[in-house]
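SEQUENCE WITH STRUCTURE:
===
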Amino acid sequence: MLFITWEASPEIFSIGPITLRWYGMMFAVGFLLGFMMVRRMFLREGAPEAWLDYCFYFLIGGTILGARLGHILFYQWDYYSQHPGDILKIWEGGLASHGGVIGVVTALWLFSKFVSKKSFFWISDKVAAPIALVGAMIRFGNLMNSEIVGTPSDAPWAFLFVNAVPRTLADVPRHPVQIYESLSYLLTFGLLLALYWKTDVRKKPGFLTGLWFVLIFGFRFVWEYFKSDQGGFGDALTTGQWLSVPCVLGGLVLMARGARS
């Protein structure tokens, strides 16, 4: 049977107690590239660059806090309710994208209310494409960590995750669902960026934000069928799918509202 043996190390290099890991680097590079893109958007509209710094800090804090709390509440509440001391151990893994989105939305709302004094969609439409890029890079980090692996597969491009997390998933070749998801988010990033710079939809408040929700969580819904069990609640649908449905529906509403503006 054809498959790809995946033995990548989650560490890029280690010098004494200092270790640089792929996941952390992808997270940081994604935010840095996003910062540069949003800066161009700010300059185009003559917005104060000082706002960009605030937006950056709000987003980092919102993303990490929201993603961590989302993982705890949506996927492993049974464990963390009995081991509250482990909640702060982010370095051991455990970030949920749906929780991260809640954190991002909260951060952008706070930025809009207390810093820019502008509409929420003024900033959310700008950061939609960069956040999709960050999502793509984070999924690449998941691949290097051999985590969030797919279901068993006999496809010739299936990966045997030798260092799978948890290790019980290193038994058979599986779908490299991290790659599927990363590529779909890159596609979303390219489309949103092109629409922002090449069309007038940026003048339709909420449209790009809504499209982001539809594409990101529409893809997420599909790829959940190829993922190994991530825990949480769910029967007919996985936890990720149940959480994605309202996001897609909400995105459609935002697109419809934006198109009419």
